[in-house]
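Sanity check. The docking grid for 6-O-phosphono-alpha-D-glucopyranose depends on where the pocket ends up, so I'm generating a full predicted complex first rather than guessing from homology. Inputs follow.
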Amino acid sequence: MKPSPQSAINAVTGFAHLTDLPCYELQCAQARVIVSLYGGHVLSYQPRPGQDVLWVSPLARWHDGYPIRGGVPVCWPWFGPVSTVLNPEQQSLPNHGLVRTRMWSVQQQTVTAEFTQLTLSISVADLPSGIANVHSAAAELSLTVTLTATDLTMALSCSSPLLQQAALHSYFAVTALEQVHVAGIGQSYLDKVLANQLIRESTPVTFSQEIDRVYTAPAPVLHLDTGQHRLAIAQTGFDSTVVWNPFVSRCAAIADLADDNYNAFVCVETARLQLDHAAPLALSQKIGQQVSQQKS
Ligand SMILES: O=P(O)(O)OC[C@H]1O[C@H](O)[C@H](O)[C@@H](O)[C@@H]1O
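Predicted complex below; grid placement will be based on this.
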């Protein structure tokens, strides 16, 4: 099929202040996405010019082993501090897995009039023994980013039946933190601020304190009002959704966040966290605007 002049994929260098970062730019109609090869990391999603749905920290770095703060980090094959189930030898291993700080390669590019799609992949051979005992060869992880005129889908997959966790750790830009609303997230969560206490609460999540929650029964489609956008976040292959905002004191303690940056984002993270059995991974998050309620 002859590609539409409005759909394209181009290699570009740099995004915002990360001027030497190798990236790809996807376009479809008015929509635009930037994907970094470092981390296999979506950095920007503009459904229309000038309106970024995602947020990247002005202090984000990518050299010296830093994961990029913002966008959509890929957490794999564990989430948060590594579990001793995956890491029985208790090696010193980074938060959120191994692939946020590695270079990925381009596997496939597809450009049509209806969508633009880029697949990145990475091969990981140095899995800790709790994963490698189940599957000793290198594991292949791929991220397929599909942009249409109306939505962005990120699909993370690993066909090996591994004991594996994963998350698409999206940082959404917000304009008024106190008005941010997440609908469909459910009423039960493990509160990481309270040592993983299980809480059941019928009131909606609000962001007036540090929030770090693993929601255990979220709906397949969440609705996020960021103040600027009303977004539908569709999830597949997940067992949890993590909601995070560091608020004042935790934000001040994080080196690659400015002190007031907690006001600028909330994370809504589509996650698979179970460690009960080894299985292939197919996790996706699709971000679309609720057109009927879109704010100008
Ligand atoms: O600082 P990072 O390793 O990027 O993690 C940032 C945050 O990610 C998730 O939201 C976790 O639930 C939080 O506990 C963690 O603080």
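Relevant for the grid: The pocket of 6-O-phosphono-alpha-D-glucopyranose is lined by residues 67, 80, 95-96, 192, 212, 242, 244, 267, 269 (CB under 6 Å).
Also worth noting: Confidence is low (pLDDT under 50) at residues 292-296.
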